[in-house]
């Protein structure tokens, strides 16, 4: 689709003036749908800010109310499909094309709509490549974004959850696009400016604050001994020998366990100041004890996390806090930081196949990737070296470059009993049924350096053939069909060669791998560790309330 | 080095107030060195904006004047080493550590200073990874940036050459750092805000406008027939068969030739609307005829190019132009766009070895990389597909991913007669003498998809072994020692298998490969093509003046 000339912007703005009044950027909430009808034309590419955390929910609802007889065939470009309204635009015939990065709770419904041909998916992206395409070949004609506050000139303040807003606004504003922001309030003077008013055409005060989810909070009470064991192995087999100082953690109880045993297990091994100094990570509450123990020098953030605002503000020496005293996060820059300034990505998955490919896709759900493929890939454009990167490269047999450490942590069986190790990923079936050119593999096997289960660690860097890699994976797959296909002798051989490490090979007595290592064992203890500054969202306070 | 707490920022600002006066961000030019002495402490990490194009030259000079008895051991973090003042800080003992991305005219002097132990290089980076590290482990305590204009609140307007400024300012401002901007003028009202005043602590009006170089301008008069031949092969062997729509061009006469034969040679092959629609590129003047011919849909820009301002403003449908009517470029986002939203990078090099590794490093010069390694690498985190990416992946034998097209264009001999193909890169010697852990390879052989010389095209994707790759390279290395080691029979064999293509194999009659294909043959003709809007810098107008 060829972009229409800029002059068309003038016509759209003239129509909008009949809705909002001339000479103002403020649009009353009740006229939001009328505004969108004035500025959006059939066939437009529209970016709506559906972030990992915060949502432009009011504008999403306004968009879903458009009359499909007047506005139709829209091409939606958005990071996350999170709300029913995000799919309603397709069900109602307002939009019919979608390019996105992640669909969490809506993944099943999305798959149904694709099967029913209510929409066509262009591609599933990582966050960073979706932003990249917004600048190049998926340039938005209209961008609907969300911020905390605006002033009357249209300057925006995002508060700690800056996330995608500056990038989406920049992509649209400098392509003759029209930028509309929903805000919680209009104020005379902003705490700081996150997006300058020249980039914003309209501001809509929303009747209620935008929706935001505490997606990155894990209750320490739910961390099990197996998670602690895997965390201990991660530190012993990866953080310590590779001297990993700069890293990114995925979400999950296993990585939360790592965060919580830094000040105990890792400190006891003398690793304070030697590993895990620089994080690229949202402000996980489970990071508080490590920060308070002086383990962590700094944390660069994709977004924020509900309840962490006051604590983060109090640790401006650790988090990216502005002169106004609040966090500014930036998902695009954090993805860049994760790719180019981290030596380790460690995260979980649902399925791993014999080649080490992993995926969270299942046949009936189109979940997407988010940021994991970007983090969980070797950045071949990287040129600076660190001990971690050089050692990983040497182990992999590289002579001219290092390697990123990409660690997948997974229990051999999922909570529902399904095996995590499979001969064939469900992603292959999904690709066939959804008509994708390639299966949606989250992390490719040839990018994975280590797989950690409750049984042990497989170092895939040291494997010199696909067969060896497969044997290493079977060795840590435990009591699954996949694991039982391997003889104990073959596993012993891999142990002798340092490719497979069982807990005992790492000097870990499994009986000692318990929750006792956790520096905080509950949300309450995290609050205490924060000096009372962490304010857990209601859903995480339930246990406390029950106990009171 | 552990970052000091934020409270120290307050002390620094208090000292600065004694220089500039309380309650103002404006610092008179004559007090610039005093201001820097007030805010910088020994051992600080300091980012100075030395961009690919514009330079914070006044602040660089002020920094070089600091008294090393008071300010010393600085750790400089900067994209480009471009000015004598950038090295003077090391010669004078003000700074002793350097992390950077590119050193053009200063590369020889830099190598001398390293040999004399006047400074220690941390690493040579790509632009994008240097920004990434500024957010993570090379966070600047003080950032010295440059913009066109500021208002009295400290809001900055960069004009078209936005380049690195927002990224450097963000990295420093949200780490308790201090941001100082030199500007050409202070105005009451800015055309637009590029960096909000909350991110800027001090503004220094410079006595003269900042230095900026037209680095991306190539005079069509200097393009030779050989460049045209290579451009024709690039279009016939790569753009056309892979349907390359999204791409990035390096700088050089060969890529300038491609730009100038799009509206002639490529159009004659029926490729308008089918290839080269979306560029990630500075506004190269040699792109004007293709834009005017409707060949190019849009161009996203790292920076701008001197003289192109009015033309770019007139083509807001093509370039990222704001509501103020001027380009906003963004080097960080453009690097992301080049990595994740381009299917092709094509650029030149100085040396290629038998493995296909290429480098611009020579023993006596530490030049660095700039952005080339980032562009010239396969982005393994990419997940969306295009015909170009899928075809490249299939040819390379990939089953689960595509491949980026990375094309190196090089004449078999350099203008000084030195062979471009060598058994061993000078980069290996440089690594040894400078003490680098790895040789500074610009583009790794295993990331290169095609090498094009005036003799032919080698498709490395189709090579299945290092030996085959080497043979393909020797086949296009022409009359060099490197090329003569190959028998004509071996080359014929590679031609039959479609690995090597000579001009005749591509249907190109070498006699017709002449400058006649160029849509503009001189700077004057580019001006004409732009409708008189392109205003060439003085150094490119010389020929015209001589003829007048």
TrEMBL record, chains A, B:
MF (Gene Ontology): transferase activity
Pfam families recorded: Mal_decarbox_Al
Record-linked InterPro entries: MadA (IPR005777), NagB/RpiA_transferase-like (IPR037171)
Entries under NCBIfam families matching the protein: mdcA
Cited PANTHER family: ACETATE COA-TRANSFERASE YDIF (PTHR43293), MALONATE DECARBOXYLASE ALPHA SUBUNIT (PTHR43293:SF2)
Name of the protein: Malonate decarboxylase subunit alpha
Organism encoding this protein: Bradyrhizobium lablabi
């Amino acid at each position: 689709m060829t972009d229409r000339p800029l002059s068309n912007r003038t016509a759209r703005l003239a129509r909008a003036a009949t809705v909002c009044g001339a000479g103002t950027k403020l649009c009353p909430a009740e006229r939001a749908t009328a505004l969108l009808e004035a500025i959006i034309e059939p066939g437009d590419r529209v970016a709506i800010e559906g972030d990992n955390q915060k949502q432009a929910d009011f504008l999403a609802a306004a968009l879903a109310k458009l009359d499909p007889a007047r506005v139709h065939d829209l091409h939606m470009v958005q990071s996350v499909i999170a709300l029913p309204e995000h799919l309603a635009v397709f069900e109602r015939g307002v939009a019919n094309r979608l390019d996105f990065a992640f669909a969490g709770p809506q993944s099943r419904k999305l798959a149904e709509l694709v099967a029913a041909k209510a929409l066509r998916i262009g591609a599933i992206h990582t966050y960073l490549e979706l932003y990249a395409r917004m600048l190049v070949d998926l340039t938005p004609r209209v961008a609907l974004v969300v911020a905390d506050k605006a002033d009357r000139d249209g300057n925006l303040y995002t508060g700690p959850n800056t996330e995608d807003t500056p990038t989406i606004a920049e992509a649209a504003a400098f392509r003759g696009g029209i930028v509309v922001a929903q805000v919680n309030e209009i104020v005379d003077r902003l705490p700081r400016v996150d997006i300058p008013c020249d980039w914003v055409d309209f501001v809509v005060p929303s009747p209620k604050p935008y929706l935001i989810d505490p997606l990155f909070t894990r209750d320490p009470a739910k961390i099990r001994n197996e998670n602690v064991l895997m965390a201990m192995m991660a530190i012993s087999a990866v953080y310590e020998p590779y001297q990993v100082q700069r890293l990114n953690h995925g979400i999950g109880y296993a990585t939360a366990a790592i965060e919580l045993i830094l000040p105990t297990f890792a400190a006891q091994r003398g690793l304070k100041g030697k590993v895990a100094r620089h994080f690229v990570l949202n402000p996980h509450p489970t990071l508080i004890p490590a920060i308070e123990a002086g383990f962590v020098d700094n944390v660069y953030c994709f977004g924020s996390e509900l309840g962490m605002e006051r604590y983060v503000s109090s640790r401006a020496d650790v988090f990216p806090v502005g002169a106004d005293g609040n966090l500014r996060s930036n998902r695009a820059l954090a993805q860049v930081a994760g790719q180019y300034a981290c030596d380790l990505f460690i995260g979980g998955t649902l399925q791993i196949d014999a080649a080490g490919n992993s995926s969270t896709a299942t046949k009936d759900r189109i979940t997407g990737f988010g940021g994991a493929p970007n983090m969980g890939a070797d950045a071949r454009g990287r040129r600076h070296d660190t001990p971690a990167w050089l050692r990983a490269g040497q182990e992999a047999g590289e002579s001219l470059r290092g390697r990123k450490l990409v660690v997948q942590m997974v229990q051999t069986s999922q909570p529902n009993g399904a095996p995590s190790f499979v001969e064939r990923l469900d992603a292959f079936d999904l690709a066939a049924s959804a008509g994708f050119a390639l299966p949606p593999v989250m992390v490719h096997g040839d990018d994975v350096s280590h797989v950690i289960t409750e049984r042990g660690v497989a170092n895939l860097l040291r494997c010199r053939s696909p067969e060896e890699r497969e044997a290493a994976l079977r060795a840590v797959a435990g009591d699954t069909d996949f694991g039982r296909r391997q003889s104990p002798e073959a596993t012993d051989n891999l142990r002798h060669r340092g490719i497979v490490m069982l807990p005992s090979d790492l000097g870990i007595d499994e009986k000692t791998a318990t929750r006792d290592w956790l520096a905080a064992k509950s949300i309450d203890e995290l609050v205490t560790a924060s000096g009372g500054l962490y304010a857990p969202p209601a859903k995480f306070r339930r246990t406390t309330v029950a106990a009171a």
